[in-house]
Amino acid sequence: MNYDPKKTHLISRIREVLESQSLAGLATSSSDIPYLSLVAFAVTDDLRYILFSTDTNTRKYSNISKNPSISFLIDSRKNADSDLSSAVAITATGHVEWINEQEMDRFKGIFLGKHPQLRDFVDSNTTVLLRADIDKYIVVSNFSKVSELAMSD
């Protein structure tokens, strides 16, 4: 793979925002009706997977069961006037996969490494840890500068 400084900078920027934030907006849909919820998340080192947990008795779980296509919005805003020019917003698009037994310990460790306070929730009988396989990151900075990173690159 050839060294591409723009791509390397974009990956660093994505990683910086994702590692600095604890919560994301998660968009799901069912019957063409979008639904947005707030979730705690963690990302794998290679940025290919975003992990999150949910109770199985939620609308988001029901929506994902019917339509695994999702998107996340993760941003660096501080609710200040300067956010319009300095905040970075990242949309991650992909689809949800159920985690198999062989992968569970690894992904659970990553998620709880970022959110140890959620151990009881994650260990609950009605909670599931899910893996979003990310296809693309869309990064908006300086209010309107858009960059994209396809994970197939």
From TrEMBL:
Pfam families (UniProt xref): PNPOx_N (PF01243)
**Which residue intervals define the domain Pyridoxamine 5'-phosphate oxidase N-terminal in the entry?**
13-107
Q: Which InterPro entries match?
A: Pyridox_Oxase_N, Split_barrel_FMN-bd
List all membrane-crossing ranges: none
Q: Gene3D superfamilies from the entry?
A: Electron Transport, Fmn-binding Protein, Chain A
Q: What is this protein called?
A: Pyridoxamine 5'-phosphate oxidase-related FMN-binding protein
* Protein species of origin: Methanosalsum zhilinae (strain DSM 4017 / NBRC 107636 / OCM 62 / WeN5)
